[in-house]
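Hey Z.,

So I finally got round to the coenzyme A thing we talked about over coffee. Here's the setup:
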Amino acid sequence: MFHLPFVLDEMTLEDIPAIMSIERRVFTSMWTSGIYRRELTANPWSHYRVLRSRQATLPPILAYGGVWQMDKSAHIPTIATHPEYQGKGLGGFLLLHLLLLGESLGCTEATLEVRASNLPAQKLYRRYGFEVVGIRYRYYNDNGEDALIMTRATLVQEEIEAELAQLRPKLQQHWQAALQKHPPIME
Ligand SMILES: CC(C)(COP(=O)(O)OP(=O)(O)OC[C@H]1O[C@@H](n2cnc3c(N)ncnc32)[C@H](O)[C@@H]1OP(=O)(O)O)[C@@H](O)C(=O)NCCC(=O)NCCS
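And the result:
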């Protein structure tokens, strides 16, 4: 049986250098390592997870993201997948686990903001039940771009687990093929 070459794990301070190397490549306006340090040590409402590689030939962190517990709302402040490993189901897998985490914290809905131009991320969010509920005009300082506010109206454990079960065969197929066809990339 094929085992996925990564595990879901808590983000730690030691992960920050690997996260920064992804952050630099995928975001135009990136978070600093200081922001991550503060999030991990001084924000009692934040919870961060990583998809940690189980294979020495893959990058140590394949994806990462977080949840802020904001009363009944699970806010997703950031999520990203290593640029060489996007489109292989990691973003969906991680997002669903962040939603499960939010649900376990007592949240009943999930929210996030996304750049109006970020169509891959919007596709991911729509795929997992988020809808646009508003716009924050000129929200991003770097280019004055609007943010779409997206919400998933319900967080029900059984439903999220069913979505994960549906994703799993696709994830296995993607990864089995990816590891056979392409030599893993070293960091
Ligand atoms: C958004 C992001 C996290 C998605 O991660 P991922 O690991 O590629 O996601 P998945 O493989 O689970 O893909 C989820 C859906 O998005 C689609 N998708 C993923 N990457 C895509 C791309 N580059 N272009 C178009 N669609 C894409 C997939 O086709 C998939 O749809 P499907 O399930 O209907 O096939 C990733 O693209 C990323 O890290 N982007 C840069 C950082 C970022 O913008 N983060 C979000 C900030 S709000």
